[in-house]
Every structure is written in structure tokens, then in C-alpha cells.
Amino acid sequence: MVKTLYCWRCDADIPMLEDDEWKELFPHLEEGLRAIKDLRRNNSMSLEQAKDETYGRGALQRYFDLTGSRETNTNALWHHRVSQYGPPCSFCGKPLRTPKARMCAACGASA
Description:
Shape: elongated
Largest sheet: 2 strands, antiparallel
């Protein structure tokens, strides 16, 4: 079940994936990386050209299928995963940046 959490990198509330959903998305990200390598090797493309040509299309579509939310930045998908965040701050309610965090980066409160 998708959970909406504040993402400190995006500075917005974002639909985050649970680990079982992440397992469905991850192969699409891996495939995008393989496609970049293949394009560069076989067509002498720059990294930027290869990324623009292929990277993330399948992953972005799978994220939409899972969340109902459109994401345009494939790299953002790497951190839209619930288990990478900590519990909500007792003061401001935003999630701590990591499960081991002892201070809220958003408001400075001790966890």
C-alpha cells in the first residue's frame, strides 16, 4: 500500500513505495541502466544522450501504475521508498531522514 510521506530531497509530500512495491519497480531501474550502457557501447553516445534516449521510461510507468502519481525524474525514484525514512518527528510530524536519525533535519528537534 502506497504511503505519502514528506521527501526532504523533493521538498514535497510524495507517494512512497513499500518494500514489496519497490521490488516491482527496481528491475525497471536496473533495465534502464543496462540500456544506457548498451546504447553508449553500441552507438558511441554520450552519457546524457543515452539517458535522454532511454533511461527510466519503464520505471516511471511502473511507479505511476503503483502510485497513481506521475514522476518525471527517474533518479527521484531511487529514494521514494518508505523503508529509507525514519519515524515521524514528534514535533513537526515530518519523517526523519533515516531510520537511525536522532534529530529532525526539518525542524531541528531531537528524536
